[in-house]
Design goal:
Strand content: 35-45%
Largest sheet: 5 strands, antiparallel
Distance between the termini: 36 Å
Radius of gyration: 23 Å
Order of helices and strands: HHEEEEEEEEEEE
Structural class: mainly beta
Number of helices: 2
Length: 188
């Protein structure tokens, strides 16, 4: 329909060409605001291309007060527990936050926490986006004043689809200790 001067819209024309097009806005296409049982996961909208949007939601995993260790010099899972790990539907980008209390039983030994991606995308954990702790006195527990660190990474180059983000751990020597581990992913 083309609007012209001094012409009146009928109700049917208005409903077809104005009202129905308003139902194709971001707010109309978004799912009803939903929150998971744990209070996380409210949806937000991201652009996925020209005139295209998708609903995404933040996801997280937290391992509380379960001190774990590794002596591996390459990124690995910890000795008794996996992750934390989060599986989400992403576009080609995501924002990832990792957080952990980090220590090492050997003074000045390096301990690191990173994350890997699997699923639609495969990316190995890397020092390039790791929390790195070096040059500290030996600490093996919260009682030793093992500090808590966090970092954010804007991840690009993902393959759109279902991706799993998993925290990984390594040391340069000695035994690394990790506690209060958190992983949060904002898929874009």
């Amino acid at each position: 329909m083309t609007a012209t001067s001094n012409q009146t819209f009928t109700a049917a024309q208005f409903n077809t060409h104005v009202r129905d097009n308003l139902l194709v806005t971001e707010a109309a296409l978004a799912p009803a605001s939903q929150v998971d049982d744990d209070g996380w996961g409210t949806y937000y909208i991201v652009g996925t291309g020209t005139n295209a949007i998708a609903a995404r939601r933040t996801s997280y995993d937290f391992v509380a007060w379960s001190e774990q260790s590794t002596s591996s010099s390459t990124y690995t899972n910890l000795s008794r527990t996996y992750g934390p790990s989060v599986t989400v539907v992403t576009g080609t980008q995501a924002i990832v936050m990792i957080q952990a209390s980090i220590g090492n039983g050997t003074a000045n030994a390096y301990s690191a926490v990173s994350f890997a991606v699997s699923g639609a995308t495969t990316v190995a954990a890397s020092d390039e986006w790791a929390i790195e702790v070096d040059g500290r006195a030996a600490s093996v527990s919260e009682a030793d004043n093992m500090p808590r660190y966090s970092m954010y990474k804007f991840v690009t180059g993902l393959t759109a689809g279902t991706n799993t983000f998993t925290m990984k751990y390594r040391v340069s020597g000695g035994t690394g200790f990790f506690n209060q581990r958190t992983l949060i992913v904002w898929p874009l």
